[in-house]
Write a structure and sequence with these properties.
Chain lengths: ~375, ~260
């Protein structure tokens, strides 16, 4: 709109303001600027008869302006309608208060963060406690073990992950072989590529890569699934029906992952070594017969087992952290995202920490 | 003057037909109710009117815009003209109550901050909530409060048209009547038009001006309460002419 919303007529005794046009939300910014430009004193008469349209934002702006100028001028209002009065009365009834925002500073953030970590640890302990009880309960009453759910999760977390685990392991095997072959070729120790690839994949890289892929794939899914059920109060409903959410949701997921992760690790070992074999035949012209012969010589069963033993431990860490974070979701959609992130970050960190622990133990035991 | 007109709307989900030629008109400044049993497609019809679903056939026009030929910019304009109250509130859970109410004002206008804050508080006051509620988050609210906040949000842009999906469901009877009064008050004061889905007999007999009854995939009765009561459709018989309603509402209606 081009026209002004306020028309001013001044004479000796008083200032006459005629408010015009639409006093509605789209024009409030403009009107408020016009009001601010007004310099008023003495007697002021406001004529509202030309206001064509108004809404509560317009009336609020008017009330606000009236309060601001009331100390310096005497105000007369004419030409108002009963609807405007009604709205005016309704809106001036409200006690407008300033709602303070909670203040934060660095120190309080640090303190809060620290307390939250402690709380998380305590909560995780109690989660593990409840889980253990449910485990014992399930063993005492084998009928209560949810075989169907467990198989479902083996399929979704294990079988369906085969392709991504294969692709990752193959690439990692190739990369390891490429990097090592450059160094080994300098010494003419080409054949040791088999030792490097075979042992590093079977003992360390296979379990670790598989666990990280599964943490990103299934750990996050567990958190999101259980978190969504928490928000829709499905878990509360289960509790009221006497269905223990641990027995129905958590244990099947943990057991399923503890079964499928070692199998995935075995699969990853095979594909990883295959990747290494392909790379070394390309880079060092090592034939597959030579490679496999050497592999047979140096790779003991022990190395396989040392790697695979990590499987159930990693699986327990990933699945329990995933389910724990899911149970922590509180009733808003944003917290699903936050807890899913936390779940993946925590479980990957814990996988690496446990892997380091295994290394220390193996070394100390001289394995 | 009709500001919403629905003509011959046909809706199918797969093989299931929901609407088979639904037509209705909503006049300016009235409180219009859409009634019908569960599964009769009330919510679907409402979603078609507010452009969330497209019907397979038929024509809907809202505030003079034909929804079949509306352009993107016109649709955006139209969306600012109405407010929608969803059945379960649909408040943004990551925002506080005050932020929920002011989100559109902030996005679409540049009004001064203090006016905006007052506007938010006045909306809260209008729906009968304490301004302090503004700093709470949706997860901290009770069911009734969520409804009220959702109404406050629907009113934020000073709409000329208000859509309410079961506004009084889940409210206590006293709260529900206050809600009805509030809707009438807003209609009278702001000159808005209200379209609502409701099962609440008190609302239907108390505040609704005109209604359309959906059954058998069509509008089987429409108009004010008197003309609807003349219908002999089984749903109308069952819904309006049982002992409870006869005793509580219809007899009183005749006395007036």
């Amino acid at each position: 709109m081009k026209t002004n919303h306020i028309e001013i007529v001044k004479n000796q005794h008083q200032t006459m303001l005629s408010f015009k046009g639409s006093w509605t939300l789209p024009y409030i910014e403009k009107i408020s600027k016009e009001l601010q430009r007004l310099k008023l004193n003495g007697n002021v008469v406001v004529d509202l008869s030309s206001v064509s349209d108004f809404d509560s934002s317009g009336v609020l702006l008017f009330i606000d302006w009236q309060e601001r100028i009331s100390s310096s001028v005497t105000l007369d209002i004419i030409g108002y309608t009963s609807k405007q009065v009604e709205m005016y009365e309704l809106l001036s009834k409200t006690h407008y208060t300033h709602i303070p925002k909670p203040k934060t500073n660095l120190l309080s953030d640090i303190g809060k963060g620290f307390v939250e970590v402690i709380r998380d640890i305590v909560a995780f302990m109690s989660f593990i406690g409840e889980l253990t009880l449910s485990f014992f309960h399930a063993f005492a009453h084998p009928k209560n073990i949810r075989i169907k759910e467990t198989i479902y999760h083996i399929r979704h977390s294990g079988f369906d992950a085969l392709v991504i685990v294969a692709m990752t392991s193959f690439l990692v095997g190739m990369v390891i072989a490429y990097q090592a072959s450059v160094q080994l070729a300098k010494f003419g120790a080409d054949i040791y590529i088999v030792d490097t690839v075979g042992i590093s994949i079977v003992r360390e890289l296979g379990p670790m890569i598989t666990a990280i892929v599964i943490a990103g794939r299934s750990g996050s899914a567990y958190t999101a699934e259980i978190g969504a059920m928490k928000i829709t109060e499905e878990i509360a409903a289960m509790r009221t029906m006497g269905f223990d959410p641990y027995a129905f949701l958590v244990i099947p997921r943990i057991v399923a992952l503890m079964i499928s992760l070692p199998l995935l690790i075995f699969f990853s070992d095979v594909i990883g070594i295959l990747g290494g074999m392909v790379a070394s035949s390309m880079e060092l012209s090592l034939s597959s017969t030579q490679f496999l012969d050497r592999l047979h010589e140096i790779l003991e069963l022990k190395q396989y087992l040392l790697g695979m033993i990590k499987g159930p431990v990693f699986a327990f860490v990933i699945a329990s952290v995933g389910c724990f974070r899911g149970m922590q979701v509180s009733d808003n959609t944003e917290s699903i995202g936050l807890h899913t992130t936390a779940s993946v970050v925590n479980s990957i960190f814990l996988v690496i920490a446990f892997d380091a622990l295994f290394s220390v133990i193996y070394t100390e035991l001289g394995l | 003057m009709s500001i919403i007109s629905v003509k011959g709307v046909v809706t199918r989900f797969g093989k299931r037909t929901i609407h088979d030629g639904v037509s209705l008109d909503v006049n300016s400044n009235e409180i219009f109710a859409i009634l019908g049993e569960s599964g009769s497609g009330k919510s679907v019809l409402l979603k078609e009117i507010i452009m969330l679903i497209k019907p397979q056939a038929g024509e809907i026009s809202v505030l003079g815009y034909n929804l079949n030929t509306i352009t993107y910019n016109q649709a955006q304009e139209l969306r600012r003209e109405w407010g929608v109250l969803f059945q379960f509130g649909a408040l943004y859970s990551s925002m506080s109550v005050a932020q929920n109410i002011e989100v559109q004002i902030k996005e679409y206008t540049h009004i001064p901050k203090n006016i905006r804050q007052k506007l938010v508080q006045s909306k809260l006051e209008m729906v009968g909530l304490d301004p302090q509620v503004g700093s709470l988050f949706p997860s901290e609210l009770s069911g009734g409060m969520i409804k009220r906040v959702a109404l406050a949000r629907a009113l934020a842009m000073e709409p000329k048209l208000l859509f309410l999906d079961e506004p009084t469901s889940g409210l206590d009877p006293v709260g529900a009547r206050h809600f009805d009064e509030l809707i009438v008050e807003l209609r009278d004061m702001l000159g808005i038009t209200v379209v609502m889905i409701t099962h609440d007999l008190d609302s239907i007999f108390g505040i609704v001006d005109n209604m359309a009854i959906l059954a058998d995939k069509k509008v089987v009765a429409s108009g004010d309460i008197h003309s609807v009561l003349k219908s002999t459709h089984p749903f109308v018989e069952e819904f309006f002419k049982n002992e409870y309603t006869k005793d509580k509402f219809i007899n009183r209606l005749h006395n007036v």
